[in-house]
């Protein structure tokens, strides 16, 4: 290699006017540090949505934790609402936003030298100011003094929930004259977070690029691998080597019947003799998630049954992706995917004794496609307002407090939803924004699947004689070995359509990489 082949820039060293050469890291390692985290703009968006001209927003960040009776703990994970206002990803911080003064301040811990010896230093004020667009960074020992003086003057303190109230001695004296609002912040932050900023789109694009590359690496090395654990290891190794150290959710590498367990996580079975492998895996980039699923034929046993289901799920996905644009009700897309599935299963003879329309309306399709078509992706893999995506029109959650609870991990599809389909009833949104509808700059997954989970399907068919009547048991018998097929991409809604942020090979392209003839 010639020196001139190295990407570099010349840097003038201030003090001596000397020249030094700074070798540029590959672009991929730069994304995420090149742009400042737009914390001010996020805070202003939230304050505007609150409709408040005065008050203090206060959010504590996450602290380090240890397991019970142990000096070890889980990997640090920053609180997402806190991160949204700061871009700060280390423990022990807080944030205040003074709405009237338009002043966003991050409060950081001082790290003692004895702690630095063991764990390294935490970022100081200059580093935080360089990384995040905020007005000020202060050490936390000044926080109570600041809060005491500001809270004595403003009317309202906004916190996310009662457990996140500030904790300092004088606070009790201030409480009687303060309006403490523990209800308004979360809904408005959800509504801010669900529409992604340019910065967030770049982060999620990067998370997708890293994970797509890792999916491709797995496909290229697939035939050297003989156990699900090696698939998991290969994916993880590729992400880590690209400097993405955190997965957005536990890797699912399920072969054969394991592919029909939606959140399978054992990842320890041999691949030999299995037809398909579902690999659902996505890394985070700077706290932003990706969520990608590919289904890969295992070895040369790509049976006609597996092939047919593989093609059908890709068709379900492609037809839904092509329909994505602002104004589309996401539930309609789910129903469309179900209809495509029912038609396909009829063609294959797994369904019979009825028209596609009849079987679709009866809800038999969700025995095979039992989860929602997708969810939002952002600071969480199942990002804020994901539950609202699958609601019918008219059932807006606008203005109501949403319980946090475990998010709709690939929400189960109720029979009522799958069956009583009236695509037209879902388009009559009016008034405030309807969060079951797609808006520009949302990022959603489109992840149809068909599964042959024997216990689930058998139990499902017991629900009605009509279900049983629509299913041809003899044909179904040939499909148990297929296990399951899912394909999942992250799709950005643009002003007049969509952009697929996931570049991992799929469909015919994936089969070519795997050397499977088609
Ligand atoms: N990987 C979790 C999901 O697809 O929702
Ligand atoms: Mn998903
Ligand atoms: Mn997934």
Automatic annotation (TrEMBL):
SUPFAM superfamilies: Creatinase/aminopeptidase, Creatinase/prolidase N-terminal domain. Its cofactor is Mn(2+). It catalyses: Release of any N-terminal amino acid, including proline, that is linked to proline, even from a dipeptide or tripeptide. Gene3D superfamilies: Creatinase/methionine aminopeptidase superfamily (3.90.230.10), Creatinase/prolidase N-terminal domain (3.40.350.10). Its EC number is 3.4.11.9. GO terms for biological process: proteolysis. Pfam families: AMP_N (PF05195), Peptidase_M24 (PF00557). This is Xaa-Pro aminopeptidase. It comes from Xylaria grammica. The lineage of its organism: Eukaryota, Fungi, Dikarya, Ascomycota, Pezizomycotina.
């Amino acid at each position: 290699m010639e020196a001139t082949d190295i990407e570099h820039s010349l840097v003038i060293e201030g003090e001596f006017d000397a020249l030094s050469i700074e070798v540029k890291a590959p672009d991929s390692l730069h994304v995420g540090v090149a742009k400042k985290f737009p914390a001010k703009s996020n805070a202003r968006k939230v304050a505007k949505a609150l409709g408040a001209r005065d008050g203090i927003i206060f959010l504590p960040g996450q602290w380090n934790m240890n397991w019970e009776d142990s000096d070890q703990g889980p990997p640090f994970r920053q609180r997402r609402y806190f991160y949204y206002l700061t871009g700060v990803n280390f423990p022990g911080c807080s944030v205040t936003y003074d709405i009237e003064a338009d002043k966003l301040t991050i409060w950081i811990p001082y790290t003692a030298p004895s702690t630095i010896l063991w764990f390294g230093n935490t970022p100081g004020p200059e580093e935080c100011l360089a990384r995040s667009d905020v007005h000020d960074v202060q050490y936390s020992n000044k926080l109570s003094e600041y809060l005491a003086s500001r809270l004595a003057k403003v009317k309202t303190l906004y916190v996310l929930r009662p457990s996140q109230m500030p904790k300092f001695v004088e606070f009790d004296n201030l409480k009687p004259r303060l309006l403490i609002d523990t209800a308004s912040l979360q809904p408005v932050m959800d509504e801010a977070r669900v529409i992604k900023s340019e910065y967030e789109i770049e982060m999620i694009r990067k998370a997708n690029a890293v994970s797509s590359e890792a999916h491709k690496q797995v496909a290229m090395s697939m035939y050297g691998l003989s156990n699900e654990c090696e698939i998991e290891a290969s994916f993880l190794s590729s992400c880590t080597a690209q400097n993405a150290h955190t997965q957005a959710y536990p890797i699912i590498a399920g072969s054969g019947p394991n592919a029909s367990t939606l959140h399978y996580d054992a990842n320890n079975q041999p691949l030999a003799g299995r037809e398909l492998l579902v690999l659902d895996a996505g890394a985070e980039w700077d706290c932003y998630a990706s969520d990608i699923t590919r289904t890969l034929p295992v070895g040369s046993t790509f049976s006609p049954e597996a092939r047919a289901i593989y093609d059908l799920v890709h068709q379900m996905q492609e037809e839904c992706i092509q329909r994505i644009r602002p104004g589309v009700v996401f539930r309609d897309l789910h129903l469309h995917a179900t209809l495509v599935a029912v038609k396909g299963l009829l063609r294959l003879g797994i369904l019979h004794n009825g028209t596609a329309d009849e079987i679709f309306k009866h809800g038999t399709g969700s025995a095979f496609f039992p989860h929602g078509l997708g969810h939002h992706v952002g600071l969480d893999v199942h990002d804020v307002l994901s539950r609202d995506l699958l609601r019918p029109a008219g059932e807006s959650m606008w203005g109501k407090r949403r319980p946090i609870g475990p998010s709709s991990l690939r929400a189960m599809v109720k029979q009522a939803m799958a069956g009583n389909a009236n695509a037209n009833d879902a388009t009559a949104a009016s008034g405030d924004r309807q969060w079951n509808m797609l808006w520009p700059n949302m990022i959603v997954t489109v992840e149809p699947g068909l599964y042959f989970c024997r216990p689930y399907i058998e139990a499902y068919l017991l629900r009605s004689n009509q279900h049983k009547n629509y299913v041809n048991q003899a044909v179904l018998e040939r499909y148990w070995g297929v296990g399951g097929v899912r394909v999942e991409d992250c799709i950005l809604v643009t002003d007049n359509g969509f952009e697929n942020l996931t570049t991992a090979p799929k469909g015919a392209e994936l089969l070519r990489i795997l050397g499977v003839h088609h």
